[in-house]
Amino acid sequence: MTRHERQVEQMTRLVRRCFQRLRAAGDALHGDLGINASLRAVMESLHENGDQTVPQIARAKSVSRQHIQVIVDALAALRHVAVLANPAHKRSPLVSLTAQGRRTFEQMRRREADLLAALAADIDAGDVDAALRALAALADALELHIRKEAPHDDE
């Protein structure tokens, strides 16, 4: 393995480590709301992108429809999402944040703002710029690799 390949491996390990720590921080911040990292991720997708079907959310997150369905069911039980008829596809309803879900998500964002401000105070702005470029390059390279490896619909 070349030095560069080892560095890319280190970067992927750090991404996983950061993900695990972000998940733990989120669980601690939002535990009283009954929201874990998986629920938060689906709420964020709906908040930022509007109503979506379970398959659309799953595709965007590169996970199974079944996984997202379990999360949507949990959010529906908490009354944070509603499942609505989809005029474009009878068998694939739309998932929508409820007013309560929007309020809860906005409350979560306010809580997270304090943590993000503390983190920003501890990290040099130049390091953040470099990390953003490196992570964007990693995400793009992964996307290209996944597309090359994925079976094609026309095969």
The shape, in one word, is globular
Low-confidence stretches: none
Q: What is the number of independent domains?
A: 1
CATH topology: Arc Repressor Mutant, subunit A
Task: Give the total of beta strands.
Answer: 3
Strand percentage lies at 5-15%
State the helicity in percent bands: over 70%
CATH class: Mainly Alpha
CATH homologous superfamily (4th level) name:
Winged helix-like DNA-binding domain superfamily/Winged helix DNA-binding domain
> What is the number of helices?
6
**H-E string:** HHEHHEEHH
So, CATH architecture?
Orthogonal Bundle
Largest sheet: 3 strands, antiparallel
**What is the alpha-carbon Rg in Å?**
18 Å
How is the largest sheet built, in terms of strand order?
1-3-2
Distance between the termini: 34 Å
- Which class of secondary structure composition applies to the elements? mainly alpha
Helix and strand arrangement:
Layout: H1 3-30, H2 37-49, E1 52-53, H3 54-61, H4 65-77, E2 81-84, E3 94-97, H5 99-122, H6 125-149
Antiparallel strand pairs: 1-3, 2-3
Describe this structure in words.
The chain has 155 residues and is mainly alpha-helical. It has one domain (3-148): Arc Repressor Mutant, subunit A. It is 72% helix and 6% strand. The protein is built from 6 helices and 3 strands, in the order ααβααββαα. The chain has helices at residues 3-30, 37-49, 54-61, 65-77, 99-122, 125-149, and strands at residues 52-53, 81-84, 94-97. The chain has a 3-stranded antiparallel sheet with strand order 1-3-2. The chain is globular and about 50 Å long. The model has no long low-confidence stretch (mean pLDDT 94).
